[in-house]
Design brief:
Layout: E1 2-15, H1 19-23, E2 26-36, H2 39-44, H3 53-65, E3 68-69, H4 72-84, E4 89-98, E5 108-115
Parallel strand pairs: 1-3
Antiparallel strand pairs: 1-2, 2-4, 4-5
């Protein structure tokens, strides 16, 4: 089993429960951790049998920047669904940091994980 981690994908998103949060994009930092069986990829040194994390990063970024949610939890859940559409991924965990969420802390984080059904 292989683990791929992509740390702090920076996305500008419309996210928040207040009107002013939906009026302008805010920075989010998305960290992805996924598990998959890399045995076939390693056996043939074959990218077609591996998870293409570059394409995964692009799809996460595109989805996040083209969506609008009130809750970070909802975005996190939808991103997990997106990642688990990749048939090789057996489970994934996503953490989203929203640095502008509160005044007296560096970040608010939400983490969620799911397994392939």
């Amino acid at each position: 089993m292989a683990v791929i981690k992509i740390k702090n994908i920076k996305a500008m998103a419309k996210i928040g429960v207040y009107d002013y949060e939906q009026e302008k994009r805010q920075p989010l930092f998305i960290t992805l951790k996924l598990h998959y069986d890399a045995t076939p990829a390693c056996a043939g040194d074959d990218i077609s049998k591996a998870v293409d994390y570059s394409l995964l990063e692009k799809s996460i970024l595109e989805f996040t920047e083209n969506s609008s949610f009130a809750l970070i939890e909802t975005l996190c859940d939808r991103l997990l669904e997106l990642v688990l559409q990749h048939s090789m991924v057996s489970k994934a965990k996503i953490t989203i940091a929203k640095p502008e969420a509160v005044n007296f802390a560096e970040n608010v984080f939400v983490s969620m994980k799911k397994k392939q059904k």
